Amino acid sequence: MLTRVPDLSLDLEIRADEKADRDAFVVLMASTLLLFAFHYWGRPQFYVSSGLIQWVAERLGGTLQSHPGVGAYLYWGATSLVVRTLVPAAVVIWIIRESPRDYGFRIRGIAKHFPAYGAMYLIMLPVLVWASSFDSFLSYYPFYDRATEGGAAFWLYEIGYAFQFVGIEAFFRGFMTFGLAKRFGLLGIAIMTVPYVMIHFGKPAPEAFAAIIAGLVLGYLALRSKSFVPGIFLHVGVAVTMDLLVLWRLGALSNIF
To answer: From CA 172, how far away is CA 84, in angstroms rounded?
Structure first.
């Protein structure tokens, strides 16, 4: 049974049939397994504890040898691209047997939606300036403990950090949001928001709480634009801005530029 429901200006097609149930089950189980895999083998901590940090530094040398810790964040970004972006796309193509375009993997027609995301960034900017004054944020960001030294290592860290957000948006606002909205409509956004908030546990409490709002809003905007791509730019912009604001407050911004 196919029902078209106008949800908050979203013309969603919500299916309630055997295939829809199967696809939702695949999305939820694949998401659970991928979250498990990424938590244990995709984060910077694994790169360090597994010995990859020494192995890569010895073979590649250069900045990765003099600043081995930055490799952990490049690894983080790379595994996020694989586990959170490429694998979900493969699941859509070969198991669900649909087009990744129907799961937010598209760039065509998204330009008209950028003003909404730009407005969100401007709304967030004073909040970021305010939050960066708190000790909980000053001691937490940037993740890379030698970021205040600047140089090539800092920018390599930011590259890895940015790629990590590509995976986050592809996974949560793409694979999960679109996959679940096909069966549950807007409720799919709420379901996606639960694990999205949980990956923020351990961060400052205000940020973890804000992830609830961000998950709901970004999920809605992704469905409206039919793409998770604009969310990448917003997420990266907010994250890099926070890093720079913290460095500014620590008096280390001059080391970066």
So the answer is: 9
Helix (H) or strand (E) holding 196: helix 187-198
Reading the block at residue 111, the tokens are 């330009």
Residue 62 pLDDT grade (very low, low, confident, very high; cuts 50, 70, 90): confident
Q: Are 223 and 177 in contact (CB under 8 A)?
A: yes
Alpha helix locations (H) across 93-174? 114-131, 135-138, 151-168
Partners of 13 in beta bridges: 4
pTM: 0.93
Cα–Cα distance between 175 and 23 in angstroms, integer?
A: 11
Furthest-apart CA pair in the chain: how many Å?
60
3-state secondary structure of 2: strand
How far is residue 81's CA from residue 89's CA, in Å, rounded to a whole number? Answer: 11
> Under 8 Å CB-to-CB from 69, ≥6 apart: which residues?
48, 53, 144, 145, 146
- For the chain, give every domain's residue range: 2-255
Q: Which of 176, 169, 196 is nearest to 24 (CA)?
A: 176
The whole-angstrom separation of Cα 51 and Cα 190 is 38
Q: What is the CA radius of gyration of the chain?
A: 19
The tokens describing 64, both together, are: 């990765």
pLDDT tens per residue, range 103-142: 999 999 999 999 999 999 999 999 999 999 999 999 999 9
Dihedral (CA of 245, 219, 195, 84) sign: negative
Q: Which of 40, 70, 42 is nearest to 56 (CA)?
A: 70
- Long-range contacts formed by 139-144: CB under 8 A, 24+ apart: 140/203, 140/204, 141/242, 141/243, 141/246, 142/243, 142/246, 142/247, 143/44, 143/73, 144/69, 144/70, 144/73
Encoding tokens for residue 115? Answer: 């003003």
Which residues on adjacent β-strands are paired with residue 203?
201
